[in-house]
Amino acid sequence: MKKIYGLLAVLLLCLALVSCATPEDSSNAAYSLSREGYTLDKVVILSRHNIRSPLSGEGSTLGGITPHSWHKWSSGTSMLSVRGGSLEVQMGQYFRRWLEAQSLITPNYMPAGDVRIYSNSKQRTIATARFFSAGLFPVADVPVEYHMDFDLMDPVFTPQLTFVSDAYNDAVCAQVEQLFSEDITSLDSAYRLIEDVIDFDKSPAFLSGSAEELTTTDFNLVLKLNEEPAVTGSLKTACQISDALVLQYFEEPDVRKAGFGKKLSLSQWEEISRVKDVYGDVLFTAPLVAVNVAHPLLSELLGEMKNSSRIISFLCGHDSNVGSVLAALDVEPYSLENTIEKKTPIGCKVVFSRWKASSGQAFWSADLVYQSSEQLRGNEILDLDNPPQVYTLHFQGLEESAPGLYREDIFLKRFENAISAYHEMLKQYL
């Protein structure tokens, strides 16, 4: 009997140690946005839109590159799907519950000029913002602000190069080569997997000779003024296929059907999705590119963070916006858990939160909030007992005053430095 009690004591001690683990002890996988001992003062959220249909429709590369029929989408090409709208309401509902628990808003809160919902002018971002707002403020009609004609890109959210020169382009190409050449080369196995899943060798495009096998050796970076960075070659084609397969994985209840009849493991779905991650990194996260394409959005975010009359700001854009902003701010490298998308998952939010200590001193935190792949596939209800995934971001060269908290002056200075880096880049490469 004493032996049994001894074993129970050891077990209870182990459980106590696990319960006391810090975020670092669990690969930084937190499940709360809250900071104990601090009072929430405001939040500024940068969101990626939720699940959409593929960017390419009938008659595109996707149509001829496989003998199979793609998922029948509930929305038009590139538009938010019905599932995407439902998932975004769930995310808004979660944030409502969290903000009420933090006493930043009261139940059935009615904003009075202290909330801003701002979206890019594309259908998928406007719709995402509306669904999020419906979940966050179910009894209030908060307008979604957008500045361009419907379905056109707003310059604030367009990850375009507003400055190029021969010297700048050469420097960017060298930087991309240094940072990502190994990542590109490592995609060979992912290319073979994608070709197998879609039965590429039986597709009309391959049989007609209009499409060739994917290769890691035909990569070419294209940099043009007032355009988004682009690539030609297999990486572009593979990203289109990867994107469509991942979206099909989230939308199709039958996971085997999502893989065109192939029984794919979770690690294989992650390998397929990795193509998108590398593509996004290559195009938008090299430092010289990030400070260029993220410049207007960084300024917009900083303006919201400094706006004393606002308590909630929600800005809705794209994965390129999230990736370039985090790169320009020099966020430490990360790989997310419980999702096949490791960098900027569909519907993810970067949550910048301002906290007050009992002394009155202000601090900021930055967390990446996203629905797990299972939450997306299951269209799960989110609440404080079943929250989305939360990953605390850390910034290279910034000292934390407490876990995940940065003194306000040094945190805002990081934004100011990232904005100033754009002007320094102009001087250097003119």
Give the averaged pLDDT, no decimals: 92
Terminal Cα separation, in Å? 81 Å
User: Which consecutive residue ranges, at least 5 long each, have pLDDT under 50?
Assistant: 1-30
Instruction: Specify the biggest β-sheet.
Output: 8 strands, mixed
Q: What is the second-level CATH architecture of the largest domain?
A: 3-Layer(aba) Sandwich
Number of domains: 2
- Shape type: globular
Share of helix, binned: 40-55%
What is the CATH topology assignment of the largest domain? Rossmann fold
The DSSP helix count reads 15
Order of helices and strands: HEEHHEHHHHEEHHHHHEHEEHEEH
* Gyration radius, rounded: 23 Å
Classified in CATH, the superfamily of the largest domain is: Phosphoglycerate mutase-like
**Strand content range:** 5-15%
Structural class: alpha+beta
Structural overview:
There is one protein chain. By secondary structure, the chain is α+β, with helices and mostly antiparallel strands. The chain folds into 2 domains: 27-60 and 74-161 and 290-429, Phosphoglycerate mutase-like (Rossmann fold); 166-284, Phosphoglycerate mutase-like (Rossmann fold, 3-Layer(aba) Sandwich). It has 15 helices and 10 strands. It has helices spanning 2-19, 61-64, 82-101, 123-136, 166-185, 188-197, 204-208, 234-251, 255-258, 266-284, 287-293, 295-306, 319-328, 373-378, 408-429, and strands at residues 29-30, 39-48, 115-119, 220-222, 230-232, 312-317, 349-356, 362-370, 389-392, 406-407. The strands form 2 sheets. Strands 1, 2, 3, 6, 7, 8, 9 and 10 form an 8-stranded mixed sheet that branches. Strands 4-5 form a two-stranded antiparallel sheet. Helix 11 packs across helix 13 and helix 12 (295-306) packs antiparallel against helix 15 (408-429).
